[in-house]
Amino acid sequence: MVAVRLDGKAAAADIKAELAVRVVALKERGIIPGIATVLVGADPASQLYVGMKHRESESIGMNSIQRELPAEATQADVEALIDELNADPACHGYIVQLPLPKHIDTDAILERIDPAKDADGLHPTNLGRLVLNVNTRITSPLPCTPRGVIELLTRNGYDLHGKDVVVVGRGVTIGRSIGLLLTRREYNATVTLTHTGTADLAHHLRQADVIVAAAGVKHVVRAEDVKPGAAVLDVGVTREVDPETGKSKVHGDVAPDVAEVAGWLSPNPGGVGPMTVALLMTNVVEAAERGA
Q1: Which of these, 30, 230, 262, 273, could form a disulfide with 3 (CB 3.0-4.6 Å)?
Q2: Annotation marks residue 218 as catalytic
Q3: Tell me, what CATH number does 169's domain have?
């Protein structure tokens, strides 16, 4: 068996094409969806990531707002910038690029974001609304990466109803939030959350119809622990320095030979990553539509 590749780049391109049409419709009403980023310091990886987000958003006609502060910015400086974006009608959604410098209280900054402008969908208010809402339509931003995982599956014809999903990793970005979406009645999946403290991870993995690997542990999901035909999505990242070349190499949570057992496989890179950016822009466009 060779797994069907879940191509995140192709699915993200489809989403961006759909968003471009919605952006045109908003512009006809005099509204330009504005996406902003807050970058504190000059971390090269963060600069590259932020730059990519702005290029993507500009390519579909969105208004790109880049706000930067030096690494020595104070808590008050960052909070003032957050307040400014909260009050700016040209900004419909934004993110604070993490990590922030160690002297900044990250939780306080993230909680200061206007929930309506929470482009990541991870504000405590929005997660709370998701906890409380199992049945009805949601009109608040949704967590980008979990939403990207679900979109990648459903756009490839995968039906999640009644499926057993095992999530590996308990981070807020994916692990702790994806179950809130998957257990809504519109998907009706059953979700088991596992992590590095799980006593017998292999046992849980072998029962799974779908595995979402997001622990950040190199090759924690092995071929012998995957049920034949399961859908496996590799989201976690581990960076190692190659001793021979001195260059950094990226590894996913899923071992390469899983492709010989799984029915569907989302690789890393090229799988969920592009979907996260596409759904980030979706959250901002939807915020602009709600405001209209």
Answers
A1: 262
A2: no
A3: 3.40.50.720
